[in-house]
Design a protein that fits this description.
With about 200 residues, the protein is an alpha/beta fold. It has four helices and 13 strands. Helix 1 packs antiparallel against helix 2. It starts with a strand and ends with a strand. This is Glyoxalase-like domain protein.
């Protein structure tokens, strides 16, 4: 099964990006490499951490801000749970969310930053076309909601891939959809080297 092994963020200051990711959660499959001028505006993707408790959301967001992140959307309650977002040193948006439903936001355990799932969400102008593109490259659909959202089975891989409407992704993250940041990330996996319909680059792991 095709799987994502890691992602590489491109930045003029890769050391700051690497230190930021390590401060959030040591061992995350996130690399950093030197890039040219930083992309402008929304990068078109988010790095999303799913955790079991609202207290873990608060802890990880606090760690991200302490490590030099910029607040985007403070943690808050919504119909789907509890979460917030932070921009990293390179401008990439990181979101942290509790998997608990709105009626179960109360903390049921000690504070912690245990990550249940690490999801790379890509913004697409045509989710259906992106879905077919990735199916042809060996990925298997785990969840799909029409032309709005598709999540692929990551098998035993450390990163889950999801594709959703770009404007919806930006709205969920709390930013404007305008930007040219697709060149700010490289996805490393077994699918080979290619560029997807929305301009995201993959490299053979």
């Amino acid at each position: 099964m095709t799987r994502i092994e890691s992602v590489t963020l491109r930045s003029p200051d890769p050391a700051a990006v690497a230190a930021f990711a390590a401060a959030i959660a040591p061992g995350l499959p996130v690399r950093a490499e030197d890039g040219a001028a930083p992309p402008r505006g929304f990068r078109g993707f988010t790095l999303s951490l799913v955790v079991p408790e609202p207290s873990a959301v608060d802890a990880l967001v606090a760690a991200a801000l302490e490590a030099g992140g910029t607040p985007v959307r403070p943690p808050r309650r919504s119909l789907w749970g509890y979460g917030g977002s932070v921009a990293g040193p390179d401008g990439s948006i990181w979101t942290v969310a509790s998997a608990r439903k709105w009626s179960s936001k109360k903390n049921h355990g000690p504070d912690g930053n245990r990550i249940e799932q690490f999801v790379l969400q890509l913004g697409s102008d045509d989710v259906a076309a992106s879905r077919e593109f990735y199916l042809e490259r060996g990925l298997q659909v785990e969840k799909s909601f029409g032309r709005k959202y598709v999540q692929f089975d990551n098998g035993s891989g450390p990163i889950t891939l999801a594709v959703l409407n770009r404007r919806l992704l930006a709205r969920n993250a709390g930013v404007s959809p305008d930007g040219d940041g697709r060149r700010g990330i490289v996805i490393n996996g077994a699918a080979g080297s290619f560029t997807d319909p929305d301009g995201f680059t993959w490299a053979a792991a």
